[in-house]
Amino acid sequence: MATIIDGRIVSAAIRESLSREVQTMVSNGLRPPHLVAVLVGNDGGSQTYVGAKEKACHEVGFLGTVIRYPDTVSEAELLAKVDEINQNEQIDGLIVQLPLPRHIDENKVTLAIRPEKDVDGFHDVNMGRLAKGSDGIKPATPYGITLMLKHYGIATEGKHVVVIGRSNIVGRPMSILLSNAGETGNATVTVCHSKTQNLKSFTLQADIVVAALGKPGFLTGDMVKEGCVVIDVGTTRVDDLSKKAGWRLCGDVDFESVSVKASAITPVPGGVGPMTIAGLLVNTLKARKANLAARTA
Fold it and tell me: Which terminus of the chain has fewer CB atoms gathered within 10 Å of its CB, N or C?
């Protein structure tokens, strides 16, 4: 049976370390890191994610603020708020929870956030730094995954990694992080997507598979080799009347059939999800330190 890669355990260890660092910062008379999340509309998933991020901030001693707008908010009003937060030196990190309503250009909003406050790591400047292998703010979910691999001692150097999915949020930055030089890099990475022919032929070669395509149960046991490591990024809500909420979270991996062949696997929930928040918190502390350095330079 595969080792369960428990993101909750890793995230808790990271939060404990961050909490100690924040306590030291505050004891030295400094303001703790401040993260602001902007939430537009009433999407259940987005509300859950933002609530979890706000709770995590408070647990480690960060200042966490949520600004809520109805889904009728104009693009201009949202951009004006982003600009206001950009100018506020008391705020270190800003995230605008995606997805946004159709009348708002997500790319325009993302690019409006100052790169040094973009703790989600989505801004073109931060993506460019990532592509060059520079030290900077990395996209929270892929970064969180690398922290999890490091914690469990899962080697990536010289390994063949197949990433299924090429989104700018997970798939593409994940492939770059794993192929870059570094402790959780130096892998040979293949990126598969909806136009890939005979995808199974690639996944069967993989030492590590990262499934990030948003299709519940897509990766099955016959698609992976014995002893592989499987990282499931999927979080799709599927109907389940046995649950109080009437739904459950389902990953991109068919856990039952894949776990009997894999050497290690992440569950859903409790795998990558907590690590996304951990990556966000680490980024926010990094942004706070950069803010301090800029103001004392």
Answer: C
